[in-house]
Amino acid sequence: MTPRDPHTSRFIRTAMSRELLAADTELELAIAWRDHRDEQALHRLITAYGRLAISVAARFRRYGIGMDDLIQQGNLGLMRAAEKFDPENGARFSTYAAWWIRASMQEYVMRNWSVVRTATNANQKKLFFHLRKILARMEDGEIRREALSATVARELDVPEHQVEIMLGRMAGQDLSLNTPQSEGEDGREWLDAIEDDGVATESTVLDRMELDHRRQLLHDAVRTLPAREQRIIAERHLQDTPRTLSEIGTDLGISKERVRQLEDRAMTRIRAQMHRAEPAAVPA
Fold it and tell me: In Å, what is the CA distance from 184 to each residue of 69, 177, 222?
């Protein structure tokens, strides 16, 4: 990895010292931008969450991309989030923006890492962003080399032949884990860039934000259902002790099979609603 530019360091220090917005302030700014295109409101919203871009960027440094480039991509993700955010859907902008920041950085890495310039589908992206950790475990002797393809395919739930294709792309000498990152890195190898398995503060925060985001998406999706389907989903999936189809059918005066049909239809609607509301991103 290249040494951090002094300008980037100053930018990071400034961004990390920005105000933390209260939920009501965040809502007011988001509405001002959406309804009145208030650029001052947009600027305040974006600068307040520049720290999110920095936190996510730190998790992508292991791919050999400069921190300044990653932060720039994160800021582009923030801008996209501001354009698409609905301030009245009940979710925090910070939660929503974290997804767009990560998606923007992932797309940038995919475009700029030579090994995956043709890796565009979901399985290939999943392989690229997770294969390093599994390779590192193999280096430690946890996984036998001859079992690698099958192990990766099982762990990531992808076809084994796609694992073999990706391993073939990464088999060149310049992509060995023990290859120096560059001529000027004083012997630093790519293996040194693999993310520590320890839980980082930014990782914990972002994972919690993602969980909150998905819960909010689920809540919003359930609220769009007809009342009877809401009740079925609540009693079948949102209680510690789910009720049976027969019990719900007795309460509603319909057959068990009809309850099952309504449940299936409701789940299909929920999945479709969450898919529309959620930006496409693969966890780093």
Answer: 20, 17, 55
Q: Which of 81, 112, 143 is where one domain is finished?
A: 112
Give me 228's structure tokens: 């009877």
Both 72 and 121 in one domain: the answer is no
Query: Per-residue pLDDT tens for 25-81?
Result: 989 999 999 999 999 999 999 998 888 888 888 888 777 778 888 888 888 889 988
Q: Which of 60, 85, 112 is the last residue of a domain?
A: 112
How far is C-alpha 31 from the geometric centre of its chain's CA atoms? 25
**pTM for the model:** 0.45
- Residue 263 to residue 257: CA distance in whole angstroms: 10
Per-residue DSSP letter, 3: P
- Residues 50 and 154 reside in one and the same domain: no
Phi, psi (deg, nearest 5) at residue 271? -60, -40
Number of structural domains found in the chain:
3
Question: Residue 188: what residue type?
Answer: R
Query: What is the amino acid identity at position 107?
Result: E
Write the pLDDT tens digit of every residue in 141-182.
Answer: 545 545 667 777 788 787 877 777 666 665 544 444 455 555
Range of the domain at 9: 1-112
